[in-house]
Write a structure and sequence with these properties.
The chain has eight helices and seven strands. It is of the alpha/beta class. The protein is globular and about 50 Å long.
Length: 167
């Protein structure tokens, strides 16, 4: 899977309360959730994000409450993936479960500026900053987790496996 888009860069400790504020957690439609993604951190985010764009953040992205809708909201806004120096463990798991590709890459975050065009080769863990020509290696996920994300998350993965086993 190749992801390509504009980098929207944020700092440390972007918590789930600003990824999707609690007042919207009663919404279930990903697109409706996406209309409110990051609005308490960056009021213009939903106006400037385009389908395929990526979030780039410092350490501890997705800390705070364990709301799974944070990853769903980012996907609903059109975000194709998140590159960060590190992720809060519960967000890391929620991202995989909902099919949001995430990549840990300290050097990449340091070498990417807001507005840069970046490409992520998810299968090989290679991040390229198209604006500078530099490449970075992300921590690579095991094939099983890559499959989970490629399938769109845990639910779709399990559904497919059940169908396969019933044949």
């Amino acid at each position: 899977m190749i992801l390509k888009g504009t980098a929207h860069k944020y700092g440390k400790n972007v918590d789930t309360d600003v990824i999707i504020p609690g007042r919207y957690c009663n919404l279930i439609d990903p697109v409706e959730l996406g209309k409110h993604a990051l609005e308490d951190l960056d009021v213009n985010f939903v106006k400037k994000v385009k389908p395929g764009d990526l979030i780039v953040a410092d350490t501890n992205f997705g800390c705070g409450s364990s709301r799974e809708v944070a990853a769903v909201a980012l996907k609903g806004a059109g975000v194709s993936g998140v590159v960060a120096k590190s992720f809060a463990r519960i967000f890391y798991r929620n991202a995989i479960n909902t099919g949001l590709p995430i990549f840990e890459c300290v050097e990449g975050v340091d070498g990417i500026k807001d507005g840069d065009t970046i490409t992520v080769d998810a299968a090989n863990g290679v991040i390229t900053n198209e604006s500078t020509g530099k490449t970075y290696s992300a921590t690579q996920m095991p094939p099983f987790m890559q499959d989970l994300i490629a399938m769109g998350g845990l639910l779709r993965y399990v559904e497919k496996r059940l169908v396969e086993k019933s044949k």
